[in-house]
## 1
Amino acid sequence: MGQLLLGLINGSFYAVLSLGLAVIFGLLNIINFSHGAQYMMGAFVAWMLLNYLGIGYWPALILAPLIVGATGIALEKLALSRLYKLDHLYGLLLTFGIALIIQGLFRNYYGISGLPYQIPDLLSGGQNLGFMFLPNYRAWIVVASVIVCFGTWFMIEKTRLGAYLRAATENPALVGAFGINVPRMITLTYGFGVALAGLAGVLAAPIYAVNPNMGADLIIVVFAVVVIGGMGSIMGAIVTGYGLGLIEGLTRVFYPEGSAVVIFVIMAIVLLIKPEGLFGRTA
């Protein structure tokens, strides 16, 4: 039970990060390989707000995603918008290069040692569940992740704004004919996906040491989650993120040596049986 709960906590990070990737790919057809670096930026922005400006955790939950999302908007306007008519490979290579640049800049300035970020007083302590001691902050991560994932799914699938976004993906010329500024919508959508990565970084900061490599260590797993769920599938990203976190936790109980690769084994099996992913649509 303890490992299942820890797996659920890991799955919460997988779900939020893969959700951002799915939003960007599903609506913009961009393979955003800089997502891990943007996740790392979210953690660093929260750390800098606290240590340089004295701004604590709760305001950082709002400010850091906005700041990271703004950098995503700048990236989309200055670089990615020039690649939409080209093959997906160009966007992947560009975002991969940008990720290396971001990581290099933070590594040169802050080094590779982790920087501590204090858990807010309101979420300190924990609960004795009998089979394990659950820190309040880790329980908060699960709750916050569920709220973010459900809210994003509802916005995209059940609101008029989400309908505009999906329509702009399918037929931008027709949507533009109705007076909707499609380029602005695309830019804001990319910024929103990047802001989700920044939010995940803020949530991760008090648990993991804030360091330039924290995104690089996680992004490969998150890409595997997105592939298993189905590239661009919002529901697939959410369900698969939580599910694979639980499977990873169970694997640590029955076969600890395989816990680091179980997600990639599942990805290989899914690609062989259903290449479009569990929730993906056949092209």
Note: The CA atoms of residues 26 and 40 lie 23 Å apart.
## 2
Amino acid sequence: MSAPVIAQKGPYPVELTAGQTVYWCACGRSSSQPFCDGSHRVTDFTPKPYTAVKDGTVWFCGCKHSGTPQTCDGTHRTL
């Protein structure tokens, strides 16, 4: 499996409402970061669904190397 493209070295803050489901880009190739636009079709990656449990800001991983995929865990600071 190939490595994901680093879309940005920092998280994407996104406002979501409880129950809202989005699809996080795992490959890093999407032009709609941090969400999937179908660019993964030429890779081994698949988008990861994320459903908000409450209203508020979710910090989605931009580097695509987080140990807690979809959300940022600070891994971008070590890349």
Note: The CA atoms of residues 12 and 60 lie 5 Å apart.
